[in-house]
Each structure stands twice: as C-alpha cells, then as structure tokens.
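Lab manual, section 2.4: Encoding a predicted structure.

Procedure: take the sequence of the chain (115 residues), apply the prediction step described in section 2.3, and record the output as structure tokens. A sample record is shown.
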Amino acid sequence: MRIVITWIANSFAILLVAQLVHSVSVDSVRDAFVAGAVLTAVNAIVRPLLVILTLPLTILTLGLFYFVVTGLCLRLAAHLVPGFAVRGWFMTIVASILIGLSSAIIAKALTKATD
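Recorded output:
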C-alpha cells in the first residue's frame, strides 16, 4: 500500500511542480501518473545504488552531491516518459527538491486519510 501512496503522491507533486516551474512540463494527467510511477521505481531501485556509488563524493561535498543524485533520478524519469520533460540541470535539481518536498507532504496527508 505504501508504494501506491508514494506513486500517487509523486504524480500529484509532478503536476504541482509543472504548474509552478516553467522548466518542467507535463503533457497530460496521464503522463504525470506514468512519470510518477517511473519516478517511484527509479527512486526505489536506482537511487540507492547511486547513493552508495557516490558516497565518497557526497561526504566530500558535505552532503550537497545528494541533490545532484536526486536530480539525476528525476532526469532519468523524464528521459523515460515521453510526455514529461525537465529543461536545464539547475532547474532539474530545483524541481527534484520541490517534487520531493511536495510528495512527502502529500504522502503524509494520504497516509493519515487512509488510517
């Protein structure tokens, strides 16, 4: 059930950030839900591997490289979903932070609603 809540939260967060940030575009709600599913899968499978592989660089930069890892995961999701695009590396990192924060808030609200 937790993965479904994460998927829905990521999808709504992508829609929200696409409305707020002009560098993020989603063609339709369907594409946002596909992008949410892909982002959930990438965050569950690829991000832990990237975190482990880039741990020395993350320690060297006092944790700031973790934002780059999160941006890489968002960039990968955007590359895999045709109706979802993020332009510019800096804006990818900003969008990944906004999506992460929004998704956490939405997931918390959904979890409380289902309890």
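Check your result against the sample. The chain has one domain: 2-114.
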